[in-house]
Amino acid sequence: MSYNYEELSLSEIIDLMRQWRENNERKSEDIMELWLNVLETNLNNYGNEKYVLLEQIIYAALDCHQYGVANALIYLLSMEFPGSLRVMRYKSALLEAEEKYDEALNILDSIIKADETNAAARKRRVAVLKAQGHINEAIKELADYLKKFMSDVEAWQELCELYLQVQEYGRAAFCAEELILHQPHNHLMHQRLADIRYTMGGVENMELAKTYYCQTLKLNPDNIRALLGLFLVANNLVGHYKSSGSSKRKEAWKLAQWAQSKTAAKQREAQSTASPNLADMMLSLSLAE
């Protein structure tokens, strides 16, 4: 989006940047345009929002690889607030953006040593280790972090993803269960655990996957991925329960048929002709009763 800077006053620009912050919109390129055209020459006229605006500009500069701008602003803040842990975090972010990971880690270690409860620095340390490809170290760091900050949902999500990267599916499932405890009505959390259990394989895990896919669809009947997952799990269970008279086999077969019919109905609702017919593809995979 382009702006007519001549029509925007400084207060309107500050209001606009506040709106972006409140809406969690990064808008880095726009912020740098505003910095170069208006904000840079009005550095001392930001009012009460001066420091939060400077932080917003610093991260926008890092996003746009304008490290000189970020470095200059960090220097100004370090002169005004010598020894500030927040400013030190800006320095580590700059070093991380420049791929000077070891130096960034040194600063983060200094922050954590000064304040063991600094959650932002601890999480950033995990991000740096991950960027370096040190996944096992990142897992250890994040697991230690969660011992102190057990209610951090984003951290549980990240730890789950890291365990999946190293194929530690049992531990990833534990993280997914923690996420469900924190967000029991979030259908995506149930779907994630179902996906993990399906990947782990075996009758017991398939039964658990079936349960979580069903709960996903109960919370959100429009979740096509859960429908497909339920179909695949049910088909798998039909194959496991060899006896044609088995009640579990009949239940699994009915679930597979139900998932297929629901998928066909949703495709008809969407009237999608550009993509392959998913219901037909599922039919080709299904097992006969």
Could you characterize what this model shows?
- The structure is a single chain.
- By secondary structure, the protein is mainly alpha-helical.
- The chain contains 15 helices and no strands.
- It has helices spanning 10-22, 28-37, 50-63, 67-80, 85-97, 101-114, 119-131, 135-148, 153-165, 169-182, 187-200, 203-219, 224-240, 247-270, 278-285.
- The longest helix has 24 residues, at 247-270.
- The protein is elongated and about 80 Å long.
- It starts with 9 loop residues before the first helix and ends with a helix.
Task: Say how many strands there are.
Answer: 0
Classify the beta-strand content into a percent band. Answer: under 5%
- Low-confidence runs: none
Q: So what's the overall shape? A: elongated
How do the helices and strands follow one another from N- to C-terminus?
Answer: HHHHHHHHHHHHHHH
Helix/strand-derived category reads mainly alpha
Overall radius of gyration:
26 Å
Query: What portion of residues is helical?
Result: over 70%
- What is the residue-averaged pLDDT? 88
Distance between the termini: 57 Å
Count up the helices.
Answer: 15
